[in-house]
Amino acid sequence: MGLRHLARRGSAPATRTLAGLPGGIVTRRRGRGSEPEDVRLWSEGDDRRFIDRNATARTGQLHVRTHHDERDRAVVLLADFRPSMLFGTRRALRSVAAAEALALLGWRVAADGGRVGLAVASAGAPTVLRPAGGERAMIAVTGALAQAHADALAAESGSPTRAEPPLEATLGLARGLLPAGGHLVVASALDDPGPGFDELLTLLAERIAIRLILVSDAFERARPPGYYPFALADGHRGTALPIAGASGESAEARLADYARRGIAGVRLDVESGPEAYAPLMERLDAVL
What we know:
Blueprint: H1 4-8, H2 13-19, E1 36-41, H3 53-59, E2 63-67, E3 74-80, H4 94-111, E4 115-121, E5 127-133, H5 135-158, H6 168-177, E6 183-188, H7 197-204, E7 209-216, H8 218-221, E8 228-231, E9 237-240, H9 251-260, E10 264-269, H10 274-286
Parallel strand pairs: 3-4, 3-6, 6-7, 7-10
Antiparallel strand pairs: 1-2, 4-5, 8-9
Helix pairs in contact: 4-5, 4-10, 6-7
């Protein structure tokens, strides 16, 4: 709730009117819309799928129908609160940073008349809210985020070595909340998302717009040298000396890989804080 003032910055009505889209960045909205706007003569380069048969039959000349851009936005925010996200070395846990970014984005969408829904992945039962509009909907979303995070922390403290549940199940639930033309925003570090996650995400990207907020802790990007204790889900414990580059792909490489599949994203540095997240969420909002 306290992040609403950051979400308002850069989203004055004058800015939205000039851009024609949410946010202060002018971009082309996907799709042709569903509301008829005008019927005009055919011109070279027009799509034949938009030919108006009635006007063409009456006049004997080819006519095409134009449409308004879609104005109703339905956005589902997917927050990853699985055990791997309950970790952080600077400022906050990765799960907290993910929730902050999603809340900022949600307030921006709601302020522009869009509808916001929620899906939370955790070790327990997932939290699901269908997309709804207005301030009341965002209050419900922020309350559900806070409660789901508290439940995830309580579950982790009771069983700190539990196995990591797959993320793909919650991804399927989130897809079920969206109407045609909806948008899904996933905030996660994508640690062990499950064997079918990438395939499912790629398939969904062909049907809906998916954006990724890849959460990154400073420890992941630059680990201090030394031995580190570890504990596995099977109860095995020990110490290990991490090798440089052993953590896998960098955040930039992963984002580039997803971008090639049509899934744009941004890297979210946990230590930066909400003030730095606000312009990132403005950029993300502009392409939703």
